[in-house]
C-alpha cells in the first residue's frame, strides 16, 4: 500500500472535518505543572504532575488530615513543598470518590493527569472544571498493584503461590492493640460522613468517638475470631487491621467466635445477618469482604512467627482450633461479592499509612481459586 494513502489518517481527517475533534492517541500530549502555572488564560489543557497535598487557602497546602475531597495540589516533583510551584486543582463531584484526598489519601505522591480549564483557584494558579482524571491508582483503578509488589508470583499456582504471597505480605509494620482504635477510624471512615466509621456486619454509620465497650458503642471485631488459634490481642494476628473492623458491641457479641456459613435466624441490630449455634453470616454486601479477610489471614500466618498456623477447612464448629470455615461457602461469597471501591480503598490506606502490606485477594480475586481449587 502506498505511504501516501492511509485509511486511519483519512478517517481521522474526515471526523475532524465534521467537528468530532478526534485526535490520534499517539498525538495526545500533556503539559507540566510549571507550564500550566504560567498559562492561566482559561484555555483547556491536560496537566501531568504529582499529588503533593490539598490546598485549603492561597498559600496553604495540607499533607494529612484532609478536610474533604474537593481539591488537590499538583507539582512537577513529588517532594515539592513550595506552594508557588504548585497547581491547585478543583475536583468536580463526579471525580471525588476516586481522586479526593480524604477518601484516597494513598494518592499522595502519585502521578496523575488532569484535563480542565487553566484558571485561578483559591486566588492561586489553578485548574477548574476538570473533565478527566487518570492515573494514580485511585480507589476505582481496576489494577491497583503498586509497582512490583507481587514480583515473584509470576507463573505460580497452588501451594507455591501461597508460599510466595506469604513471604511478600509478612513484610509489614505491626500495630499495638491500642493503635488499632485510631487506625480503624481512618481505614473504615464513612466516605459520606468523615466523622463516622462504617460497621462491617451491620453497615451502620456511627461516630468515631463512640468506640468502647458499652451497648451501642463500636469495638474491634476480629473477623478471624481470636480464639481460633488462641492469639488473643497480642501484637501480630490479634492486631492485624486487615481483619480487624469496627462493629457494634451487641452484634460483635452475637457473632462471638462462630465460623461462617449460610443459614440461621436473624441477628438483632444487624439487618441481613443470620446466625445459628455454630455459624454466622453477615449482610450480603460484605460477605466477599469477610471471605477475603479470612483468605488473607490463612496466607499471612503460617506458624513461622510464634503464632498458630491459621488455615481454612470446610467445617463449622471449629472452636479453639486454628481453623475457620466454611471454605466452600467463603469461596462462593467471594465470587458473588467482588471487591468494591470501599474495600479497595481500605487496602490502599492500610498499605500506605499503617501496615505497609496488602491483602492480595483484593488486588487479585482470581488467586482464591488458584490456592483453594
Descriptive overview:
The chain has 373 residues and is an alpha+beta fold. It folds into two domains: 29-135, OB fold (Dihydrolipoamide Acetyltransferase, E2P), CATH 2.40.50.200; 158-371, no CATH class. It has eleven helices and 17 strands. The chain has helices at 7-17, 33-38, 93-99, 158-169, 177-187, 249-255, 287-300, 327-336, 341-354, 360-363, 367-371, and strands spanning 44-57, 60-62, 71-75, 87-90, 111-118, 126-135, 189-190, 193-198, 205-207, 218-222, 244-248, 259-260, 265-267, 270-275, 279-281, 311-312, 323-324. It has a five-stranded mixed beta barrel. A four-stranded mixed β-sheet has the order 12-15-14-13, with helices on one face. The model is unreliable at 1-28 and 138-144 (pLDDT under 50). Pfam families: DUF6359 (PF19886), Endonuclease_1 (PF04231). GO terms for molecular function: endonuclease activity; hydrolase activity. This is Endonuclease I. It comes from Kribbella shirazensis.
Brief summary:
It comes from Kribbella shirazensis. This protein is an alpha+beta fold and 373 residues long. It is 27% helix and 22% strand.
Layout of helices and strands:
Elements: H1 7-17, H2 33-38, E1 44-57, E2 60-62, E3 71-75, E4 87-90, H3 93-99, E5 111-118, E6 126-135, H4 158-169, H5 177-187, E7 189-190, E8 193-198, E9 205-207, E10 218-222, E11 244-248, H6 249-255, E12 259-260, E13 265-267, E14 270-275, E15 279-281, H7 287-300, E16 311-312, E17 323-324, H8 327-336, H9 341-354, H10 360-363, H11 367-371
Parallel strand pairs: 4-6, 12-15, 16-17
Antiparallel strand pairs: 1-2, 1-3, 1-5, 3-4, 5-6, 7-8, 8-9, 10-11, 13-14, 14-15
Helix pairs in contact: 7-8
Amino acid at each position: 500500500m502506498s505511504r501516501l494513502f492511509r485509511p486511519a489518517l483519512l478517517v481521522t481527517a474526515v471526523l475532524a472535518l465534521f467537528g468530532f475533534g478526534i485526535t490520534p492517541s499517539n498525538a495526545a500530549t500533556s503539559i507540566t505543572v510549571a507550564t500550566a502555572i504560567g498559562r492561566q488564560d482559561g484555555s483547556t489543557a491536560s496537566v501531568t504532575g504529582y499529588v503533593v497535598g490539598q490546598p485549603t487557602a492561597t498559600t496553604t497546602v495540607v499533607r494529612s488530615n484532609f478536610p474533604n475531597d474537593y481539591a488537590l495540589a499538583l507539582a512537577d516533583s513529588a517532594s515539592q513543598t513550595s506552594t508557588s510551584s504548585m497547581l491547585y486543582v478543583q475536583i468536580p463531584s463526579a471525580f471525588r470518590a476516586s481522586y479526593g484526598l480524604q477518601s484516597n489519601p494513598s494518592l499522595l505522591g502519585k502521578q496523575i493527569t488532569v484535563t480542565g480549564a487553566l484558571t485561578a483557584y483559591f486566588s492561586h494558579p489553578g485548574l477548574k472544571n476538570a473533565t478527566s482524571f487518570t492515573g494514580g491508582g485511585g480507589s476505582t483503578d481496576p489494577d491497583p498493584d503498586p509497582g512490583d509488589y507481587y514480583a515473584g508470583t509470576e507463573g505460580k499456582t497452588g501451594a507455591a503461590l501461597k508460599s510466595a504471597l506469604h513471604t511478600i505480605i509478612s513484610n509489614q509494620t505491626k500495630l499495638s492493640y491500642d493503635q488499632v482504635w485510631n487506625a480503624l477510624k481512618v481505614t473504615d471512615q464513612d466516605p459520606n460522613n468523615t466523622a463516622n466509621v462504617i460497621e462491617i456486619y451491620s453497615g451502620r454509620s456511627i461516630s468515631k468517638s463512640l468506640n468502647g465497650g458499652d451497648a451501642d458503642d463500636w469495638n474491634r471485631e476480629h473477623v478471624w475470631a481470636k480464639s481460633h488459634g488462641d492469639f488473643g490481642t497480642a501484637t501480630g494476628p490479634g492486631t492485624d487491621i486487615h481483619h480487624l473492623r469496627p462493629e457494634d458491641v451487641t452484634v460483635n457479641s452475637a457473632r462471638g467466635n462462630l465460623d461462617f456459613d449460610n443459614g440461621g435466624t436473624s441477628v438483632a441490630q444487624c439487618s441481613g445477618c443470620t446466625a445459628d449455634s455454630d455459624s454466622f453470616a453477615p449482610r450480603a454486601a460484605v460477605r466477599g469482604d469477610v471471605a477475603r479477610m479470612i483468605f488473607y489471614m490463612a496466607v499471612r500466618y503460617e506458624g513461622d512467627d510464634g503464632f498458630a498456623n491459621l488455615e481454612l477447612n470446610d467445617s463449622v464448629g471449629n472452636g479453639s482450633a486454628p481453623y475457620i470455615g466454611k471454605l466452600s461457602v467463603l469461596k462462593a461469597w467471594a465470587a458473588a461479592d467482588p471487591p468494591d471501591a470501599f474495600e479497595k480503598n481500605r487496602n490502599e490506606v492500610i498499605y500506605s499509612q499503617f501496615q505497609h502490606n496488602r491483602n492480595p485477594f483484593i488486588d487479585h480475586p482470581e488467586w482464591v481459586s488458584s490456592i483453594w481449587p
